[in-house]
Amino acid sequence: MRTWNRWQVATIAALTVGYAGYYVCRSNLSVAGPLLREAGYTKAQLGSIASAGVLAYAVGKVVNGVLGDFTGGRVMFLLGMALSVVCTFAFGLTTGLAAWTVIWCVNRFVQSAGWGAALKISGVWFDAAHYGRAVAVLSMSYLFGDVVARLALGQMLAAGATWRQMFFGAGGVLLGLTGLVMLVLRSRPQDVGLPPTAGSAASVFGADGNHERPASLGSLVAPLMKSLSFHLVCVMSFGLTLIRETFNFWTPSYLAETAGLSADKAATASSLFPFFGGLSVLVVGWLSDTLGRGRRAGIMVLFLVPGAAAMVVLGVMAGDAAPGPKLVLVSLVGFLLIGPYSFLAGAISLDMASKRGAATAAGITDAVGYFGSVLSGAYIGALAQRLGWSSAFGFLAAVSIATALAAAAYYFVRERAIAMTSENSDEAPPVRA
Fold first, then answer.
1. Tens digits of per-residue pLDDT, 282-308?
2. What is the pTM of this model?
3. Contact 324/345 with Cβ under 8 angstroms?
4. Where are the domains of the chain?
5. Cβ proximity of 82 and 34 under 8 Å
6. CATH class (in words) of the domain with range 6-188+195-419
7. Of 143, 205, 149, 146, nearest to 339 (Cα)?
8. Which residues lie below 8 Å from residue 264, measured CB to CB, with a gap of 6+?
9. How far apart are CA 404 and CA 411, in angstroms?
């Protein structure tokens, strides 16, 4: 199989490092959570900030996704980084739930441009046969990037930094990364004298999926809305994003309360979830390209079922103060769920929308997921407050089982049909399933 050229390597590296930088200015509120609670803010109050931010993020996913397909990915990617720096500095300078909620919502809205823009650029720079591996590498940005962010932010707190100083440090890091990415990133291969890549022949746009710019808003959105398999992808995104956001935000608090860890140690330990999630993404990305795109949904089912079982056990152990088993289970859940999650607004969105609608497909898929994950803040926080962490994880286990059933339906509706159909023709018709 043809290897990537140096410009493809540089592009995926710039996108991965750049999107990891987004997480320095996103994980900071989660890491600051234990300190803010010591200052008198409750889990429900902090959860309400997180939920409002997720809602803004969901709206921004759709708006900025459509804009990304029409304007191109590079501008949207860099703009999201720069505006997030401004918001992070502003958060550190203000006080009070109202101001924090507004600033956090603006921060999440501008950050919502990042992933769709990165996927748009990836779809233009890589052939369809490489989507799984390219997106697997790109997904390291929000997994290992989250690990590095939490470790670095935790070390700032361990060194005696206040939560405000931590926010200023996070903004400075992202500012530096913005300048670096601006120097390296190019919009398309033709900008550096390389030939265009071949998009997905199984796109809902058919052969038109190879054309980067859509002709109109209707021609961009309608084919996706008519696809049953796209709706199933959105259902899966609803469940898996809710689970992922819950673990991202509440793991430090869960470990601090049930395992007796200090705020800085809980922040460091919470990095296990995205770390093992990152390993999972690499594994499923390689498997899906090696076994064929028709196997993506089957891989999801095989991972999601034991993931639900691990969450049931994690909830049962909530009353046990021993940290070791909890850390093992948090790591296991990350490995079993994040790989399948990465398919939805990643390789599957590229499979379905190719170059033409990658940002929109990913944006809508993520938006549905983040509307669902609004529950991860206030609802999960209130559930844990009233009934305990066992009930919270029991709810997440039920969501995981429902998501596995949707993955099985997706396999039979779309992926199984594609696997049985030859895609060697350059004029393949749109896949409506």
1. 888 778 777 765 567 788 888 888 888
2. 0.78
3. no
4. 6-188+195-419
5. no
6. mainly alpha
7. 143
8. 154, 155, 157, 158
9. 11
